[in-house]
Each structure stands twice: as C-alpha cells, then as structure tokens.
Automatic annotation (TrEMBL):
Keywords: FAD, Flavoprotein, Oxidoreductase. It holds the Pfam family Reductase_C. GO terms for cellular component: cytoplasm. The gene is hcaD_1. Its cofactor is FAD. Residues 15-322 form the FAD/NAD(P)-binding domain. Residues 345-414 form the Reductase C-terminal domain. GO terms for molecular function: oxidoreductase activity, acting on NAD(P)H. It comes from Reticulibacter mediterranei. It comes from the Bacteria. This is Pyridine nucleotide-disulfide oxidoreductase.
Length: 466
C-alpha cells in the first residue's frame, strides 16, 4: 500500500485521542477535521466544562462585566461527532498498548495521541495555610467565579502574592473596583522576569500611581487565620504584617506532566519535549511517530533562538501549535510543517495595553526606539549578541507587526532607523533580567535549555574483545 493510500485509510478509520480539552485541544480538533480526518476523535478533559477562554478570567470576569459561564469558546459544526470525556483526568499513558489510562479506571485506545494538558496554578506551599477561607488561586472558570464573588463583597484589603502578569492584572481589577490592594513581589519590580528591570520599573511606577501598595524584594512567609479558618493576616520577610481577609496566590503555573511519569516520554518540569513538528521525544531523545504535543505543556526548539527549547504560556502559541500538530498528525512525512511562529502575547492593566513579540527574557540589552519611558506610549526593543530578539509596546500596538518582521529577519541590534515619535536617546542599556539560574515562577516564556529533571540515556560501555 502506498503512503498516500495509508494516509487516506487513517483519515477515514483511524482513532485520535486528544488529552486536554482546552484551547489547544479544541483548535487541534477543529484543524484535524479541516485536514480531512473523519475517523474517531476523542477529547479528554479533567474539568467538567466544554472548552472556554482563559484570558478574560483575570480581567472582565473579575470586574463582573462577563459571567464566568459566558467564556465558552466557539465550536464549529465539524465537531458535532466528537466524543467528549469531560470531568475525568488522565492518570497514565501506556505507549506499547497505545492506551490512555483515566482516573475512573477505564482506558482509551488511540492510533495517534495529542498531549495538550496545559498548566495549573501553583498553590501556596503550606497546605494548611492554602486551605484558609479567603486564599485563592486563579486558573480555571470556578476559580474566577469564586474570586469575583469575593471581590464583589468589598473586602477591606486584597493581598496579591506575586507580580507576574496574572498578579498585576488582578491588582488592576482591584483598583478599578476601588478596593485597597497590596502586591508583594520578591523581585525588584512587577513583571521583572518577563520584561526585565528597565521596563519593570516603569510598571512599578504605573501601579503605584494607581494606588497599589507595592512591596518589592519582599516575600510572604506565612498566612495566619482565625479559629474559624478565615484568613486574617499575612507575615512578610521584612518583619511586617498585613491585615487582610483575601489573598490571591499568583506564583505562576505548573505544567501538568505528572500523568506521564513512567510513560517513557521526555516529560519534566518545563513540559514535554518535542521536535519542531510537535512530535514528542522519548527519554532517549528519539522522536515518536504517533505522539504529539501542543500548547502550554509543549517544549520545542525555535530557529530564531538558536534552536534552544522554548516553553510558552501564550494564547496565540496554543492556537498555532495546535494547528501545526494536527496537520502533522494526518499528513505524509514529506508534507510536515515546523512550528516556527514568533511568540506574541498581550496584557491589559491599569489602562495600558501591553503587547510583546519575540522572547524578551532572551535579551541582554534593551533600548527605547519610540516614545519614552515616561510617555503614555512607547516601544522597547530587546537585543542579544547583535540581533533583535523581542519588542514590547505600551499603548503602541500598531507597531507590533513591524517589529515582528524585523525579528523574523534577524535584524541587527541596536536598531537604527528614523521614527516620527522618538523622543529619548536611542542607545541600549542592560535589560536587567533576574539571574536565569534562579527559578522565576511568574515568567510566561522560558528558554529552558536542559531540564535537569529529565532522565537521560544510560550509556553502558562495551567490553573490549580479547
């Protein structure tokens, strides 16, 4: 049978299982149908809901503009015959038997598998303190609904632990709702791990100007509750305390790879390793033919960054990578495509629209190419070893595509071109990112390099023949 005939037979009668029924899983399912796959398609998700959009959870849902129940993602009629197994988690993977094990004891067989299990919120490290009434994390729809109800009750003060994008967006919501808010960040400024110290200082000034009680280079050491189990106080590393009845733990995300333990796949702290075509590696770095990965959990090489492995927690990356993975699952090898899209994300906070393209944390230097740091709008360009690697805009989104093209062309850095709204000295300065050897839980883009938690090939030397 020819490769074309084999592919056609699989498209008609093959069985594909997608573990992870969120954005990446949904978009992959749509792409599979668009690619002509008419075989059996199963989506497995640990939440009881059909796929929904997560970005509004830390913005419009918390303000009360959109109910949490109204964040569902649109689904096309091509998915009418999909088998949904919702509210049940995958607990294991048997590669030899080609089966996904589920929490209810059942197994689901597959011919090809897409892993799209994403991330979950990193909990407060002390379990008993995390159980206090008034301590929240924000990742899913239920989290957002409970937190919105709590904020609507007008607590005396909200404490946010962690100044990444989620923590900063929640602080912005609190200010919009007129709630006193304290944000505690262990770094030098909010978003320092994502944008570097130079731009993060601008974010710090923005937050303080809007009334945030910002405490930097400080950590929360413990949370204290009353006899009824209600949060009452937080203790900080500088010896001070904050009286509060609401604390939001915004310490980043954990990739959901535990169910892949002992599966034989290259799954670790930074995600599931794969090639540029989304095919998963096994623990010996050998690519698999029938297992693919997409979304927040994927760890993949990118040519623009010297083929270092990237792990991204971005909406756009989940959509594009899901499309590439779906195409490669059903096409002949000669037609496979690489996932080479330039990372991009956005955030809305304190009246500012922040958009980023590329990987700022890969940079050594930053320069303001348009506007100025004290202006309402500006553009910051990031470079490393003479090459442009990223750009961040504040209320200047119309320029994102321009800088994206420059990044794709490996434009030289520093940049030198005339622009109409340039008002600051056009010279680079150190970007001031935290030491990369220190884990940064708030970063949404990680150049992972080698993951020390991954197992490696065990090399056994041959005995010399005598």
């Amino acid at each position: 049978m020819s490769s074309y005939e084999t592919r056609s037979a699989f498209k008609d009668s093959g069985r594909i299982v997608i573990v992870g029924a969120s954005l990446a899983g949904l978009r992959a399912a749509e792409a599979l149908r668009a690619e002509g796959f008419t075989g059996h398609l199963t989506l497995i998700g640990d939440e009881p809901y059909l796929p929904y959009d997560r970005p509004p959870l830390s913005k419009a849902v918390l303000t009360g503009w959109i109910p949490a129940e109204h964040t569902g993602l649109p689904r096309f009629e091509t998915l009418a015959d999909v088998e949904w197994q919702l509210g049940i988690a995958a607990t294991g993977l048997d590669l030899s038997a080609k089966q996904v094990r589920l929490a209810d004891g059942h197994s689901v067989s597959f011919d090809r598998l897409l892993i799209a299990t994403g991330t979950r919120a990193r909990p407060w490290p002390n379990p008993s303190e995390a159980e206090l009434e008034g301590v929240f994390t924000l990742r899913g729809r239920d989290d957002a609904k409970l937190l919105q109800q709590c904020l609507a009750a007008h607590p005396r003060r909200v404490l946010i632990i962690g100044g990444g994008f989620t923590g900063s967006e929640i602080a912005s919501v609190c200010c919009e709702l007129g709630l006193p808010v304290t944000l505690v960040e262990r770094g030098t400024a909010p978003l320092v791990g994502a944008l570097g110290g130079v731009i993060a200082e601008r974010v710090a000034r923005l937050q303080r100007r809007h009334g945030v009680d910002l405490r930097c280079q400080i950590t929360v050491t413990s949370l204290e509750g009353d006899a009824q189990g209600q949060l009452r106080r937080a203790h900080l590393s500088d010896g001070s305390t904050i009286d509060t009845e609401v604390a939001v733990v915004a310490l980043g995300a954990i990739r959901n790879t535990e169910w892949l333990r002992d599966s034989g796949l290259a799954a670790g702290t930074f995600g599931v390793g794969c090639d540029a075509g989304c095919r998963v590696f096994d623990i010996n770095a050998i690519v698999t033919d029938d297992v693919f990965v997409a979304g927040d959990i994927a760890r993949f090489p990118h040519p623009l960054y010297n083929y270092q492995f990237l792990a991204l927690e971005h909406w756009g990356n989940a959509v594009e990578q899901a499309r590439v993975a779906a195409h490669n699952m059903v096409c002949v090898p000669a037609d496979r495509s690489p996932h080479v899209a330039v990372p991009a994300f956005w955030s809305s906070q304190f009246g500012v629209n922040i958009k980023s393209v590329g990987v700022p944390s890969a940079a050594e230097e930053v320069m303001i190419t348009q506007g100025g740091l004290d202006d309402a709008s500006f553009v910051a360009a990031y470079g490393k070893e003479g090459q442009l690697v990223a750009a961040v805009t504040f209320n200047h989104a119309k320029w994102v595509e321009f800088y994206q093209r420059l990044i794709e062309q490996a434009a030289p850095f520093p940049l030198s071109f005339p622009v109409a709204d340039h008002s600051t000295p056009n010279s680079p300065v150190p970007a001031a990112f935290p030491d990369p050897r220190v884990p940064n839980h708030e970063a949404t883009v990680v150049l992972t390099g080698h993951d020390p938690n991954e197992r490696r090939v065990q090399w056994i030397p041959r005995h010399r023949q005598t």
